[in-house]
Amino acid sequence: MKQFLLVFVCLLACATPAYAQGNCGFRTDASSDLFCSTCNNNGQPVHDIINANRELEGVLKVDNDNNSGIAVEVPLGCGEDSPLNIGAFTINIGEGDSVIFDSSIGVSSAAVDFDVFIKPSATNAVIFFQGTEYQSNSTGPIPSFDDLETFIEAQAQALPVDMYYWKAEATPKGVKLKWATRSEIDNDFYSIEYSTDGRNFTEIARVDGKGSSDGVVRYEHLDVPSTGGTHYYRLIQQDFDGTRETFEVRSVTYGSEAAALKSLYPNPARAGQRVSFQAPAHVTEVVLHSITGREIQRSPATNGGIDLPANLPGGIYVLRAGGESTRLLVR
After folding, report:
1. Is residue 230 over pLDDT 70?
2. Which carries the bigger pLDDT value, residue 67 or residue 164?
């Protein structure tokens, strides 16, 4: 899996001037704002440490190589309305450094690949998770980083739902949301969330779970959007004890934009990915625009797709085919 590096100490080029512009800053305190508006080596904001499933994914580097003791707070979220979960996440931590997770941050099934790497000289690093302190050099009653890895991986393996499939399909009557599980343990309900921009979601329905099952269980829900366009759906499963798991965002074009580009996939997409589509027969060219109308790229419709620029910033874009437009979310 591709690793995304979250750098907490910028190079001089992205230090004070860049921070003044709201791009990035030194990782020297426990500010949630700094976590949500960090910088890469080019001084540009990056948020790829949070994937489309609201999971922390990739590498979190908490070490500035001078043993100054950095404290980084991982917030519940970065302005979104649903909490984060730990996924395939790695923490690199140095001497005297600490990571403090918001107490409501949960664990997803992907956290079976959770790891903590300690700098060889680090003897006084600390991680706080779900109200418990874990120490790098613990030999007594305080749990160690090995205990933290074991605890998180055990939670990931104990999640109550083994998802078989989850999809959204446009039908003449509306958008049909379908999913199925291979097994369930103490499954209370599913929450279906809806968004018009792929970022801000609102719960639109709840579907009761089957409790416990060791066979395939199928679910359906029909949503009828009030407007045409690209619609985004997110599925969240909740256990009887409040444990939650968030599944990948699904998008579908329905209504007035449905005739523009069909089978747009993936959507959401990432910079550098190829986005495939089926253009209407009369269309010869597909054009990618920013949300403000600036042209970014053109592609012959016969190509069946468009290769997104590797440096394309995250945001909402528009693919225009003839006189019709379809929104594309880039994360």
Report:
1. yes
2. 164
